[in-house]
Design goal:
There is one protein chain. By secondary structure, this protein is mostly helical. The chain contains five helices and two strands. The chain is elongated, with a radius of gyration of 17 Å.
Length: 109
């Protein structure tokens, strides 16, 4: 099986695919839920909250940051993360449009 050729697809299709990836692992979902729950930046207590090793948490934070759904600030020797509200809103709009599609014809298959 070859590599996925993302250039064959529209920007919207690629964007939906990337946003969907966020929900593809429960650790990323848990991180986002925690950030929404505390409604502020978190600086390093995710290991205790989520229950995974620091390298694992860091990898998931990297994925979320690369997708632009969280942002991070360096404070001393740690990085503090919070929801990027502008990008979160954009993701919700794109996903809502996609998920709001309905089948009109009922006589197929």
């Amino acid at each position: 099986m070859g590599l996925t050729k993302t250039e064959m697809f529209t920007d919207e299709q690629n964007q939906i695919s990337l946003f969907s990836k966020v929900f593809g692992h429960p650790a990323r979902v848990a991180i986002l839920q925690h950030l929404f729950k505390i409604n502020s930046c978190v600086c390093g207590d995710l290991v205790n909250e989520i229950g995974l090793a620091q390298p694992t948490i860091s990898q998931h934070l990297k994925e979320l940051k690369n997708l632009g759904l969280i942002k991070g600030n360096v404070e001393g020797t740690s990085v503090c993360y919070c929801i990027n509200s502008e990008n979160w809103t954009r993701m919700k709009e794109v996903m809502q449009q996609f998920l709001d599609q309905d089948i009109v014809a009922t006589d197929c298959c």
